[in-house]
């Protein structure tokens, strides 16, 4: 698989590049950047890493390892890519690590909209290819990119799987099990209006129930933790590990021949759950370079209400930037 990462020298982009090289040393990665020195630094270091990951030196006739290269974003049309991941952003201000800081998300949206429009211009030179957006606020940014590109909606999706892992972790600690024994998929907005589907949660395969207070405490914890990580590690170091691993899972799904199990990703909605003209995280299956199916799960009353709040929050911003 040849993956182009726009913003390839970013915290998330470089972590994903390393994850791809570890996962299959035959994967190729091109880091598209404006910070070309940093991209050179990562591409060179990753190429050195690939020597060991593939078990060099190789005997003659062994399958060659993938390449790790870099290029300016405007040159993306010259590359034959199987998937694109967008992690580029305008540098944040210190306030943006504070979940509660008033206006931080709006500032982030206003800063990243022109950037995503310029990325859409560069992608015009590419035939539709599965594209996973990470840049925040992801539900708005992925909607804007999809709109600007005019590509089929099956090709463009926003990454929000970090929250599914964080919810599993929060539930696991309460039940004293490993997080991988927990299933509680997470829909809605990537942010304040996240919607863990508590009504279908299981722990070690058994249904579990939560009081409204327990639900609220888990949501609060899940919303705080990325900001706590960024604050403790420094603003330049976002949640690279969960994001790198989750993105790898999405890319593996996109390159598989058979549909994956449902994963919650932020996709353009066309009537699902009664919503249109926005992106929200909903369950989808992936295969063969695209979203195969968008699924409508039964939600309980409070989850349905939270999902509507998520939709309204995203729509309000979409309306603002569409005007
Ligand atoms: N959706 C999620 O779950 C999730 C999780 C973590 C982080 N994020 C978001 O991902 C984004 C990336 O975070 P990070 O910490 O990795 O970023 P970062 O600040 O480390 O790097 C951003 C990079 O974008 C590059 N860039 C800017 N304009 C560009 C352009 N036109 N073309 C190519 N590259 C360009 C910069 O040079 C820089 O290397 C942020 O918006 C962050 O909030 C989302
Ligand atoms: O950068 C953020 O706002 C948090 C990030 O989206 C994350 O989920 O780690």
Describe the structure.
GO terms for molecular function: L-malate dehydrogenase (NAD+) activity. This is malate dehydrogenase. The active site is at 190 (proton acceptor). Belongs to the LDH/MDH superfamily. This protein is of the alpha/beta class. It folds into two domains: 2-158, 3-Layer(aba) Sandwich (Rossmann fold), CATH 3.40.50.720; 161-322, Lactate dehydrogenase/glycoside hydrolase, family 4, C-terminal (L-2-Hydroxyisocaproate Dehydrogenase, Chain A, domain 2, Alpha-Beta Complex), CATH 3.90.110. The protein has eight helices and 14 strands. It has helices spanning 11-23, 36-53, 104-123, 138-149, 162-175, 212-233, 240-255, 301-322; strands at 2-6, 28-33, 68-72, 83-86, 131-133, 156-158, 182-183, 186-188, 194-196, 202-203, 206-207, 263-270, 276-287, 290-294. The strands form four sheets. A six-stranded parallel sheet has the order 3-2-1-4-5-6, sandwiched between helices. Strands 7-10-11 form a three-stranded antiparallel sheet. Strands 12-13-14 form a three-stranded antiparallel sheet. The protein is globular, with a radius of gyration of 19 Å. The chain starts with a strand and ends with a helix. Bound molecules: nicotinamide-adenine-dinucleotide (NAD) and (2S)-2-hydroxybutanedioic acid (LMR). The site of nicotinamide-adenine-dinucleotide has 31 residues, from α1, β2 and α3.
Secondary-structure map:
Elements: E1 2-6, H1 11-23, E2 28-33, H2 36-53, E3 68-72, E4 83-86, H3 104-123, E5 131-133, H4 138-149, E6 156-158, H5 162-175, E7 182-183, E8 186-188, E9 194-196, E10 202-203, E11 206-207, H6 212-233, H7 240-255, E12 263-270, E13 276-287, E14 290-294, H8 301-322
Helix pairs in contact: 1-2, 1-7, 3-4, 4-8, 5-6
Bound molecules: nicotinamide-adenine-dinucleotide and (2S)-2-hydroxybutanedioic acid.
């Amino acid at each position: 698989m040849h993956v182009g990462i726009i913003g390839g020298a970013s915290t998330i982009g470089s972590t994903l590049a390393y994850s791809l090289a570890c996962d299959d040393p035959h994967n190729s990665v091109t880091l598209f950047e404006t910070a070309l020195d940093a991209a050179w630094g990562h591409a060179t270091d990753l190429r050195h890493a690939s020597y060991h990951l593939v078990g060099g030196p190789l005997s003659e006739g062994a399958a060659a390892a993938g390449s790790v290269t870099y290029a300016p974003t405007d040159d993306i049309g010259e590359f034959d890519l199987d998937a694109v991941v967008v992690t580029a952003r305008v540098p944040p201000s210190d306030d943006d690590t504070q979940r509660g800081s008033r206006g931080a998300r709006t500032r982030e949206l206003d800063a990243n909209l022109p950037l995503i429009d310029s990325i859409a211009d560069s992608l015009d030179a590419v035939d539709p290819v599965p594209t996973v957006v990470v840049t925040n606020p992801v539900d708005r940014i992925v909607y804007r990119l999809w709109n600007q590109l005019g590509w089929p909606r099956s090709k463009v999706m926003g990454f929000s799987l970090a929250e599914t892992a964080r919810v599993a972790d929060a539930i696991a600690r309460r039940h004293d099990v490993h997080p991988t024994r927990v299933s509680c998929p997470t829909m809605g907005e990537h942010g304040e209006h996240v919607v863990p589907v508590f009504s279908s949660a299981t722990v070690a395969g058994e249904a579990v129930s939560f009081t409204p207070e327990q639900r609220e405490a888990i949501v609060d914890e899940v919303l705080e933790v990325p900001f706590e990580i960024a604050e403790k590690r420094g603003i330049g170091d976002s949640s690279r590990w969960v994001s790198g691993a989750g993105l790898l899972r999405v890319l593996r799904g996109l390159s598989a021949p058979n549909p994956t199990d449902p994963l919650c990703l932020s996709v353009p909605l066309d009537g699902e759950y009664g919503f249109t003209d926005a992106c929200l995280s909903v369950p989808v299956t992936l295969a063969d370079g695209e979203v195969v199916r968008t699924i409508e799960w039964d939600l309980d009353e409070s989850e349905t209400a939270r999902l509507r709040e998520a939709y309204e929050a995203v729509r309000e911003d979409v309306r603002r930037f569409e005007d």
